[in-house]
Amino acid sequence: MQNIALVVGASGIIGSNLAQELLAHDWITYGLARSPRQDVPGLRPVAADLLDPTGLAAALDGLAPTHVFITSWLRQDTEAENIRVNGGMVRNLLDALSPKGSVRHVALVTGLKHYLGPFDAYAKSGTLPLTPVREEHPRLPLDNFYYVQEDEVYAAAARDGFSWSIHRPHTIIGKAVGNQMNMGVTLAVYATICKETGRRFQFPGSGAQWHGLSDVTDARIIAKQLRWAATTEAARNEAFNIVNGDVFRWSWLWGRLADWFGVEAAGFDGTIHPLETELAHDADLWRTIAERHGLAEPDLHRLASAWHTDLDLGRPLEVMTDMGKSRKLGFGEYQSTEDSFLDLFGQLRQDRLIP
């Protein structure tokens, strides 16, 4: 049977890479977003707001996807609002698709806050898991919109008879503009500002992160795992961690990133230096840099998500992710983390997002 994908959040960091992965394997692919991308050859745009059930149903009229990939979320001020809004988006989507009877598989992307806690209580003492984190780690006794999103998928699967998979990446590295969680682009913007001003490229995070082991998820490798799980019988109705497959220390990687930009690296000096503070007054500076170099995006805040980079690099523990579960079932992809960053920087330069 022809695979027909609906990628929800196709304009985002994961969704855009997933759409390209599916198209490369001859899937009919629809990309749903409030403002769909028009620049991916073969991607069929669907403009819809997941918070508007009536408009969503109209946008999906005549569409009968076999596979649904949910890669979208909206950040709210409190976890209670995160739960209401993001749980509601999943429910509205699956309710709109239910009468069609076409869906065979639904994949939901969440993340390591499944193990580390929601934004309101992220990586706080008393809830820290043993690392590397594994999929069998129980849910924390905390409200978490990831858990609510999962439960919406489970309930719809029981109602409609489709299989599901849950995917938990760690710090996604890839190109996106307007993304709310984007460390790779944030660090590229920060390094560019350091280059332009002569500032040192100061590590912004904690000693635990600087000295400890870590891992990240290239947007290209999660795209491969999403396609794999959607087409592999053994992966049905399972949750999977997804990272590149290597581990590193920021004390090793930081200088290599600095070298790419030709800036002076400064490591952990006993104090956390939040990027949100470091970049707080640089919006006008970035606009000047963008104008001087003819860059495509003059709005600093559409490129840098300093708050989320601070959240990840400020953790009080090293964080690693066990990949054994999907490895045992046959998912063997690997991605060098250094290459993840350097490939991204090269792409940003080619696309005139950094000079």
Instruction: Compute the average pLDDT.
Output: 95
Q: Separation of termini?
A: 46 Å
Low-confidence sequence ranges: none
Cα shape: globular
Give the number of DSSP strands: 13
Please write the CATH class name of the largest domain.
Answer: Alpha Beta
Structural class: alpha/beta
- For the largest beta sheet, what order do the strands appear in spatially? 3-2-1-4-5-6-11
Indicate how many domains the architecture comprises. Answer: 2
Number of helices: 15
Q: Find the CATH superfamily of the largest domain.
A: NAD(P)-binding Rossmann-like Domain
Portion in beta strands: 5-15%
Q: Sketch the major β-sheet.
A: 7 strands, parallel
Percent of residues in helices: 40-55%
* CATH architectural arrangement of the largest domain: 3-Layer(aba) Sandwich
Helix-strand pattern, N to C? EHEEHEHEHHEEHEHEEHEEHEHHHHHH
Which topology of the largest domain does CATH recognise? Answer: Rossmann fold
Radius of gyration: 20 Å
Characterization of this structure:
The protein is α/β, with parallel strands linked by helices and 355 residues long. It has 2 domains: 4-169, NAD(P)-binding Rossmann-like Domain (Rossmann fold), CATH 3.40.50.720; 179-215 and 247-320 and 335-351, no CATH class. The chain contains 15 helices and 13 strands. It has helices at 13-24, 53-59, 79-97, 113-116, 145-160, 183-197, 207-211, 219-230, 250-261, 275-278, 283-293, 300-303, 306-313, 324-328, 337-350, and strands at residues 4-8, 28-33, 44-47, 67-70, 105-109, 163-169, 172-173, 201-202, 213-214, 217-218, 238-242, 248-249, 265-266. The strands form 4 sheets. A 7-stranded parallel beta sheet has the order 3-2-1-4-5-6-11, sandwiched between helices. A two-stranded parallel sheet has the order 7-10. α1 (13-24) links the parallel β1 and β2. The radius of gyration is 20 Å and the shape is globular. Pfam families: PRISE (PF22917). This is Nucleoside-diphosphate-sugar epimerase. Residues 66-355 form the PRISE-like Rossmann-fold domain.
